[in-house]
Amino acid sequence: METLSDTERVAVLPPRTRPAGSGRFRPDAPVPEPRVSPTVDDLSPRRRSRGRTIWAWIRTAVVFGLIAPPLLGGLLVLAIYRQARTDQARPADAIVVLGTAQFNGRPGPVLRARLEQAIALYDAGHAPWLVVTGGRAPGDQFTEAEAAQAYLIERGVPAGAILLENEGRDTWESMMGVGDLLRGSGLTRVLLVSDGFHLFRGKVMARDVGLTAFASPAAGSPIRQGGPAEFNYMLREAAGVVVHVWRTR
After folding, report:
1. pLDDT value for 226
2. Distance of alpha carbon 45 from its chain centroid, rounded?
3. Which of 21, 95, 202, 220 has minimal Cβ neighbours within 10 Å of its Cβ?
4. What CA–CA distance (Å, rounded) separates 76 from 125?
Protein backbone atom coordinates (compact mmCIF):
# COMPACT_ATOMS: atom_id res chain seq x y z
CA MET A 1 0.00 0.00 0.00
CA GLU A 2 1.32 3.45 -1.03
CA THR A 3 1.99 5.82 1.82
CA LEU A 4 1.39 9.57 1.36
CA SER A 5 3.84 12.03 2.65
CA ASP A 6 2.78 14.69 5.10
CA THR A 7 2.88 17.34 2.37
CA GLU A 8 0.70 15.30 0.02
CA ARG A 9 -1.67 14.45 2.82
CA VAL A 10 -2.24 18.15 3.53
CA ALA A 11 -2.80 18.88 -0.16
CA VAL A 12 -5.69 16.40 -0.50
CA LEU A 13 -7.51 17.43 2.68
CA PRO A 14 -10.80 19.29 2.01
CA PRO A 15 -10.70 23.01 2.78
CA ARG A 16 -11.91 24.02 6.18
CA THR A 17 -15.18 25.88 6.12
CA ARG A 18 -17.33 27.46 8.74
CA PRO A 19 -21.09 27.47 9.07
CA ALA A 20 -22.93 30.73 8.47
CA GLY A 21 -22.67 32.86 11.55
CA SER A 22 -19.63 30.99 12.87
CA GLY A 23 -16.73 33.08 14.11
CA ARG A 24 -14.12 30.48 13.19
CA PHE A 25 -11.37 31.08 10.65
CA ARG A 26 -12.13 30.30 7.02
CA PRO A 27 -9.05 30.22 4.82
CA ASP A 28 -10.91 30.43 1.54
CA ALA A 29 -13.08 33.45 2.56
CA PRO A 30 -12.28 36.62 0.54
CA VAL A 31 -10.29 39.22 2.43
CA PRO A 32 -12.23 42.52 2.52
CA GLU A 33 -10.53 45.57 1.10
CA PRO A 34 -9.51 48.08 3.80
CA ARG A 35 -11.73 51.15 4.01
CA VAL A 36 -9.76 54.30 3.23
CA SER A 37 -11.04 57.83 3.73
CA PRO A 38 -11.08 59.84 0.52
CA THR A 39 -8.14 62.20 0.03
CA VAL A 40 -8.30 65.70 -1.44
CA ASP A 41 -7.38 64.22 -4.83
CA ASP A 42 -10.38 61.87 -4.63
CA LEU A 43 -12.86 64.74 -4.08
CA SER A 44 -14.97 65.94 -6.95
CA PRO A 45 -13.75 69.07 -8.80
CA ARG A 46 -16.79 70.98 -7.51
CA ARG A 47 -15.95 70.23 -3.86
CA ARG A 48 -12.30 71.13 -4.37
CA SER A 49 -13.31 74.41 -6.02
CA ARG A 50 -15.70 75.23 -3.16
CA GLY A 51 -12.97 74.63 -0.59
CA ARG A 52 -10.52 76.87 -2.43
CA THR A 53 -13.15 79.62 -2.71
CA ILE A 54 -13.85 79.57 1.04
CA TRP A 55 -10.15 79.86 1.91
CA ALA A 56 -9.73 82.64 -0.64
CA TRP A 57 -12.55 84.60 1.02
CA ILE A 58 -11.01 84.06 4.45
CA ARG A 59 -7.61 85.29 3.28
CA THR A 60 -9.20 88.30 1.60
CA ALA A 61 -11.16 89.19 4.75
CA VAL A 62 -8.05 88.96 6.92
CA VAL A 63 -5.99 91.11 4.55
CA PHE A 64 -8.81 93.66 4.22
CA GLY A 65 -9.23 93.81 7.99
CA LEU A 66 -5.53 94.56 8.42
CA ILE A 67 -5.15 97.08 5.58
CA ALA A 68 -8.50 98.89 5.35
CA PRO A 69 -8.58 100.73 8.73
CA PRO A 70 -5.20 102.47 8.39
CA LEU A 71 -5.87 103.18 4.71
CA LEU A 72 -9.27 104.75 5.37
CA GLY A 73 -7.87 106.63 8.36
CA GLY A 74 -5.10 108.06 6.21
CA LEU A 75 -7.58 109.16 3.54
CA LEU A 76 -9.74 110.83 6.19
CA VAL A 77 -6.78 112.76 7.64
CA LEU A 78 -5.86 113.82 4.10
CA ALA A 79 -9.40 115.10 3.50
CA ILE A 80 -9.25 117.08 6.78
CA TYR A 81 -5.84 118.48 5.77
CA ARG A 82 -7.10 119.61 2.35
CA GLN A 83 -10.23 121.21 3.81
CA ALA A 84 -8.10 123.09 6.35
CA ARG A 85 -6.26 124.76 3.47
CA THR A 86 -9.28 125.50 1.28
CA ASP A 87 -11.16 128.79 1.61
CA GLN A 88 -14.66 128.39 0.19
CA ALA A 89 -15.77 131.96 0.93
CA ARG A 90 -18.84 132.76 -1.19
CA PRO A 91 -22.31 134.27 -0.82
CA ALA A 92 -24.43 132.51 1.80
CA ASP A 93 -27.47 133.05 3.98
CA ALA A 94 -25.45 133.19 7.19
CA ILE A 95 -21.90 133.02 8.53
CA VAL A 96 -21.64 130.52 11.38
CA VAL A 97 -18.79 130.86 13.87
CA LEU A 98 -18.04 127.68 15.78
CA GLY A 99 -17.39 128.51 19.41
CA THR A 100 -14.46 127.75 21.66
CA ALA A 101 -12.98 128.96 24.94
CA GLN A 102 -13.90 132.33 26.43
CA PHE A 103 -12.67 133.84 29.68
CA ASN A 104 -15.13 135.79 31.81
CA GLY A 105 -16.96 137.11 28.78
CA ARG A 106 -13.87 137.74 26.66
CA PRO A 107 -13.01 135.46 23.73
CA GLY A 108 -9.78 133.51 24.01
CA PRO A 109 -7.14 133.86 21.28
CA VAL A 110 -8.55 131.04 19.14
CA LEU A 111 -12.15 132.30 19.31
CA ARG A 112 -10.97 135.85 18.64
CA ALA A 113 -9.23 134.71 15.44
CA ARG A 114 -12.41 132.99 14.30
CA LEU A 115 -14.46 136.10 14.99
CA GLU A 116 -12.01 138.29 13.05
CA GLN A 117 -12.36 135.96 10.06
CA ALA A 118 -16.15 136.16 10.34
CA ILE A 119 -16.03 139.97 10.48
CA ALA A 120 -13.93 140.06 7.30
CA LEU A 121 -16.45 137.81 5.53
CA TYR A 122 -19.36 139.91 6.79
CA ASP A 123 -17.72 143.17 5.71
CA ALA A 124 -17.08 141.62 2.28
CA GLY A 125 -20.83 141.10 1.93
CA HIS A 126 -20.83 137.31 1.89
CA ALA A 127 -23.89 137.06 4.19
CA PRO A 128 -26.31 139.36 6.06
CA TRP A 129 -26.30 137.28 9.26
CA LEU A 130 -23.66 136.20 11.74
CA VAL A 131 -24.45 133.19 13.95
CA VAL A 132 -22.29 132.66 17.05
CA THR A 133 -22.41 129.36 18.90
CA GLY A 134 -21.38 127.68 22.15
CA GLY A 135 -22.88 127.15 25.59
CA ARG A 136 -21.64 127.76 29.11
CA ALA A 137 -18.90 125.61 30.61
CA PRO A 138 -19.21 124.64 34.30
CA GLY A 139 -18.31 127.61 36.48
CA ASP A 140 -18.56 130.21 33.68
CA GLN A 141 -20.82 133.27 33.92
CA PHE A 142 -21.07 133.72 30.16
CA THR A 143 -21.66 131.41 27.25
CA GLU A 144 -19.22 131.24 24.36
CA ALA A 145 -21.93 132.71 22.13
CA GLU A 146 -22.49 135.66 24.50
CA ALA A 147 -18.77 136.42 24.62
CA ALA A 148 -18.60 136.26 20.83
CA GLN A 149 -21.64 138.52 20.46
CA ALA A 150 -20.13 141.17 22.72
CA TYR A 151 -16.87 141.09 20.77
CA LEU A 152 -18.63 141.46 17.41
CA ILE A 153 -20.62 144.44 18.63
CA GLU A 154 -17.44 146.09 19.91
CA ARG A 155 -15.93 145.58 16.44
CA GLY A 156 -18.85 147.38 14.78
CA VAL A 157 -21.17 144.56 13.74
CA PRO A 158 -24.81 145.62 14.24
CA ALA A 159 -26.47 143.74 17.11
CA GLY A 160 -29.48 143.06 14.88
CA ALA A 161 -27.29 141.07 12.47
CA ILE A 162 -26.11 138.62 15.15
CA LEU A 163 -27.96 135.41 16.02
CA LEU A 164 -27.08 133.31 19.06
CA GLU A 165 -27.03 129.56 19.56
CA ASN A 166 -25.88 129.43 23.17
CA GLU A 167 -26.97 125.99 24.36
CA GLY A 168 -24.62 123.60 22.59
CA ARG A 169 -21.96 121.93 24.73
CA ASP A 170 -20.08 120.53 21.74
CA THR A 171 -19.94 120.97 17.98
CA TRP A 172 -22.77 118.56 17.25
CA GLU A 173 -25.17 120.09 19.76
CA SER A 174 -24.29 123.57 18.48
CA MET A 175 -24.87 122.52 14.88
CA MET A 176 -28.25 121.01 15.70
CA GLY A 177 -29.18 124.29 17.38
CA VAL A 178 -27.99 126.29 14.35
CA GLY A 179 -30.07 124.06 12.09
CA ASP A 180 -33.20 124.68 14.16
CA LEU A 181 -32.47 128.41 14.30
CA LEU A 182 -31.90 128.92 10.58
CA ARG A 183 -34.23 126.45 8.89
CA GLY A 184 -37.25 128.05 10.57
CA SER A 185 -36.42 131.27 8.70
CA GLY A 186 -35.71 129.52 5.41
CA LEU A 187 -31.93 130.01 5.74
CA THR A 188 -30.05 126.91 4.66
CA ARG A 189 -26.85 128.05 2.95
CA VAL A 190 -24.09 128.66 5.51
CA LEU A 191 -20.44 129.64 5.55
CA LEU A 192 -18.68 127.99 8.50
CA VAL A 193 -15.79 129.71 10.25
CA SER A 194 -13.41 127.85 12.54
CA ASP A 195 -9.84 126.61 12.68
CA GLY A 196 -8.98 124.75 9.50
CA PHE A 197 -8.68 121.32 11.12
CA HIS A 198 -12.22 121.70 12.52
CA LEU A 199 -14.01 122.53 9.28
CA PHE A 200 -14.32 119.08 7.69
CA ARG A 201 -16.22 117.72 10.70
CA GLY A 202 -18.26 120.91 10.93
CA LYS A 203 -19.37 120.56 7.31
CA VAL A 204 -20.34 116.91 7.82
CA MET A 205 -22.48 117.89 10.81
CA ALA A 206 -24.01 120.91 9.06
CA ARG A 207 -25.14 118.76 6.17
CA ASP A 208 -26.56 116.21 8.59
CA VAL A 209 -28.93 118.88 9.95
CA GLY A 210 -30.08 119.92 6.48
CA LEU A 211 -27.73 122.84 5.78
CA THR A 212 -25.67 123.45 2.65
CA ALA A 213 -22.24 124.17 4.12
CA PHE A 214 -19.08 125.84 2.89
CA ALA A 215 -16.07 126.72 4.98
CA SER A 216 -13.54 129.48 5.56
CA PRO A 217 -10.60 128.84 7.93
CA ALA A 218 -9.49 131.40 10.52
CA ALA A 219 -6.13 132.38 9.08
CA GLY A 220 -5.00 134.24 12.21
CA SER A 221 -5.50 131.37 14.64
CA PRO A 222 -2.65 130.72 17.08
CA ILE A 223 -2.91 127.04 16.13
CA ARG A 224 -0.50 127.28 13.21
CA GLN A 225 -0.93 125.31 10.02
CA GLY A 226 1.66 122.58 9.64
CA GLY A 227 2.71 122.53 13.29
CA PRO A 228 2.57 119.50 15.59
CA ALA A 229 -0.46 120.93 17.41
CA GLU A 230 -2.44 121.05 14.16
CA PHE A 231 -1.49 117.45 13.30
CA ASN A 232 -2.64 116.28 16.73
CA TYR A 233 -5.94 118.12 16.27
CA MET A 234 -6.37 116.52 12.85
CA LEU A 235 -5.99 113.05 14.33
CA ARG A 236 -8.55 113.93 16.97
CA GLU A 237 -10.90 115.33 14.33
CA ALA A 238 -10.58 112.14 12.26
CA ALA A 239 -11.65 110.12 15.29
CA GLY A 240 -14.48 112.60 15.88
CA VAL A 241 -15.78 112.16 12.33
CA VAL A 242 -15.77 108.37 12.70
CA VAL A 243 -17.63 108.55 16.03
CA HIS A 244 -20.17 111.02 14.61
CA VAL A 245 -20.87 108.89 11.55
CA TRP A 246 -21.17 105.76 13.73
CA ARG A 247 -23.71 107.42 16.03
CA THR A 248 -25.86 109.11 13.42
CA ARG A 249 -25.96 106.62 10.52
Report:
1. 74
2. 42
3. 21
4. 33
State phi, psi for 210 to the nearest 5 degrees.
Answer: 90, 20
Q: Which of 95, 97, 98, 94 is nearest to 187 (CA)?
A: 94
Residue in 205, 199, 198 with CA at minimum distance from that of residue 176 = 205
Calculate mean pLDDT across residues 106-124.
97
Question: Side-chain half-sphere of 29: how many Cα atoms within 13 Å?
Answer: 13
**More confident: 21 or 114:** 114
**174-192 pLDDT tens trace:** 999 999 999 989 999 999 9
245 three-class SS: helix
210 φ/ψ sector (left φ>0, alpha ψ -120 to 50, else beta): left
Radius of gyration, CA atoms only, the chain? 40
All domains of the chain in start order, with CATH: 83-248 (3.40.50.620)
pLDDT, tens digit (0-9, with 9 covering 90-100), for 75-104? 899 999 999 999 999 999 999 999 999 999
